[in-house]
Amino acid sequence: MFLSYLKAFVVGGLICLVGQLLIDFTKLTPARILVAFVVAGVFLSGLGLYQPLIDFAGAGATVPLTGFGATIARGVRDAVREYGFMGILLGPLTASAAGITAAMIAGLIVSLVFKSGDKS
Question: What is the domain count for the chain?
Answer without folding.
Answer: 1
